Backbone:
């Protein structure tokens, strides 16, 4: 019996029965739901990994004296640096500095924030080069938006500067020294420092606003020490990985200091979201498998008589097995491929409409192999293996038993 | 005319919890091509068991069954299937048509495993057979759209699909009225006249008008009643 003939007759058998079509539609729906929930789950996990695990903010410890007093008593940064898994230690006053810049024009107010970066904390540059040990250079966002409203994602994404012309562009950072002893702070002296943009980074990876640039620690010290701001400061300790935070915190505690993570992620949200996605996937996959297995089982039982007739017409057991295994496999595969096609179309449609707003929050829903492999192995392989057992059992019955003709 | 079946001392029994039932005892019978045979008997007399054994879909306990000059006892399941495909056409009381296939597609089903019939000839052949049984205007109909008699005629066309040497019919008119019964017997008679061996198991006395040879089964034994 030829493969083409089996496919043709299988298609006729399936397509001409409304019941078959309804059942396969249920399976398509369940496959679609599971494909979507798994895709969202994987994308969300990917988002967490690329932000939560990579982002420095979630592994930066703010170190104080245990009694909260950090005025006048310098923290022993050398000792902190010696702790295992500590990548960098610096005074928090050198972390960021916000001020005006020469980038001010009719579109932008020119307010930018500079962040210090050390050789141990190099940034992931998507275009251009990294700072290394260079001075008077800056790495700015690929969607650079030198404006105080940069935290408004919808604005910053719409009005960002053209990244093609950013590399090599120079800007002056304007800062002032104030007399803080006066009733109102008075400007004593104005300063300007020129920076050349040598690299661009993606704000998705740092979770920072589009008006934040990175400069070397030495340049930052120059700026901060010039204005000599007597800010209440602490010490920042950067840990190499999220997994090592607890051990570093313990070490710091043993030294008599108190530390806390500067930015804490709400893991409850992650856990609840993952749980919901998992439950939806599990339910939809279970329904698809149960419906398919019951459908195939009932089909084989109902077809027993037909199998007997085919045997009486001269079909061998091998012909019967081949016929039904191909028919069942092709119907499951066609159903699954149809689900994938529908999923692809819906994905493109949703991504360009409802899901496009997620880009503002750095969440990218991406098609992933895990979702395909999971749904394929559960929706296609499990029912097919179970149907194989049923087919082998049925074909081993005598023709008379199959046709219920035994006297 | 040539002898195609020779059955010698064939016996078959069923063992139930209470007793052993000898359904066929020491059956000796021969069948030739070009003849219409009728096997009659009461319910449970063993006539269906005999036709099932002759059609290689049931086995027997003892005796010899020579089909086309070959002893079938030592044949494998695949060999028996091949003989059924090429040489035996079955007609059942319940028609057993596939309801999702059209009349001509049902007739094509046995041809799918016969490499001797080219793919492009299948439909043409099925249509010719349906025309032969008077269903030229019912080819595109599904079984549910056909009367009982028409369904049985589709089943006859299907039995003839691979041009078998013999047709075995188990109560082919059991579900039909008199008018349709006559049609079916007429078709089977024509088939036998074309050189095929037609063996019909039936309750109907009307078969006597068509049969060349009538056998009667009673208490597991076969008796040749008369030759017309």
Residues:
């Amino acid at each position: 019996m030829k493969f083409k003939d089996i496919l043709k007759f299988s298609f006729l058998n399936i397509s001409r029965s409304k019941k078959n079509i309804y059942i396969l539609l249920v399976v398509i729906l369940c496959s679609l739901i599971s494909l979507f929930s798994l895709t969202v789950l994987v994308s969300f996990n990917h988002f967490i990994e690329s932000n939560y695990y990579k982002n420095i903010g979630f592994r930066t410890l703010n170190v104080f004296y245990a009694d909260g007093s950090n005025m006048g008593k310098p923290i022993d940064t050398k000792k902190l640096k010696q702790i295992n898994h500590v990548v960098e230690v610096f005074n928090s006053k050198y972390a960021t500095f916000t001020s005006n810049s020469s980038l001010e024009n009719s579109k932008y107010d020119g307010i930018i924030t500079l962040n210090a970066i050390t050789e141990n904390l190099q940034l992931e540059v998507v275009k251009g080069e990294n700072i290394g040990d260079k001075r008077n250079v800056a790495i700015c966002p690929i969607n650079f938006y030198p404006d105080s409203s940069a935290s408004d994602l919808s604005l910053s994404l719409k009005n960002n500067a053209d990244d093609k012309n950013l590399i090599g562009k120079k800007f002056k950072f304007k800062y002032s020294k104030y007399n803080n002893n006066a009733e109102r702070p008075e400007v004593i002296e104005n300063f300007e420092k020129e920076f050349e943009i040598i690299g661009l980074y993606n704000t998705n990876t740092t979770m920072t606003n589009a008006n934040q640039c990175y400069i070397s620690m030495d340049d930052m010290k120059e700026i901060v020490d010039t204005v000599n701001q007597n800010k209440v400061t602490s010490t920042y300790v950067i840990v190499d990985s999220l997994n090592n935070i607890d051990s570093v915190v313990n070490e710091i505690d043993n030294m008599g200091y108190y530390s806390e993570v500067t930015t804490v992620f709400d893991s409850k949200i992650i856990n609840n979201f993952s749980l919901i996605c998992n439950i939806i996937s599990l339910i939809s996959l279970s329904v698809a498998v149960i419906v398919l297995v019951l459908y195939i089982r009932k089909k084989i039982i109902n077809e027993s008589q037909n199998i007997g007739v085919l045997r009486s017409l001269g079909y061998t057991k091998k012909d019967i097995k081949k016929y039904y295994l191909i028919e069942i496999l092709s119907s499951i595969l066609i159903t699954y491929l149809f689900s994938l096609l529908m999923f692809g179309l819906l994905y493109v449609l949703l991504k360009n409409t409802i899901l496009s707003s997620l880009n503002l929050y750095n969440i990218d829903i991406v098609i992933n192999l895990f979702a395909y492999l999971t749904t394929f192995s559960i929706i296609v392989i499990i029912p097919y293996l179970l149907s194989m057992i049923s087919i082998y059992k049925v074909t081993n019955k005598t023709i008379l038993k199959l046709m219920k003709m035994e006297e | 005319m040539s002898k195609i079946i020779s059955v010698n001392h064939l016996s078959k029994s069923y063992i139930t919890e209470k007793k052993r039932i000898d359904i066929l005892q020491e059956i000796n019978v021969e069948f030739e091509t070009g003849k219409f045979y009728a096997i009659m008997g009461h319910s449970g007399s063993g006539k269906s068991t005999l036709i099932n054994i002759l059609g290689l879909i049931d086995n027997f306990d003892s005796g010899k069954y020579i089909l086309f000059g070959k002893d079938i006892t030592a044949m494998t399941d695949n060999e028996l299937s091949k003989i059924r495909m090429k040489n035996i056409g079955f007609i059942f009381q319940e028609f057993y048509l596939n309801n999702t296939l059209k009349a001509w597609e049902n007739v094509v089903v046995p041809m799918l495993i016969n490499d001797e019939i080219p793919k492009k000839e299948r439909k043409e052949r099925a249509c010719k057979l349906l025309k032969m049984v008077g269903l030229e205007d019912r080819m595109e109909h599904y079984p549910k759209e056909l009367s009982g008699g028409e369904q049985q005629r589709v089943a006859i066309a299907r039995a003839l699909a691979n041009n078998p040497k013999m047709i075995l019919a188990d109560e082919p008119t059991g579900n039909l009225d008199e008018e349709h019964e006559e049609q079916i017997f007429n078709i089977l008679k024509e088939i036998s006249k074309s050189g095929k061996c037609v063996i019909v198991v039936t309750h109907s006395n009307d078969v006597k008008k068509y049969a060349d040879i009538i056998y009667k089964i009673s208490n597991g034994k076969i008796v040749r009643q008369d030759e017309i």
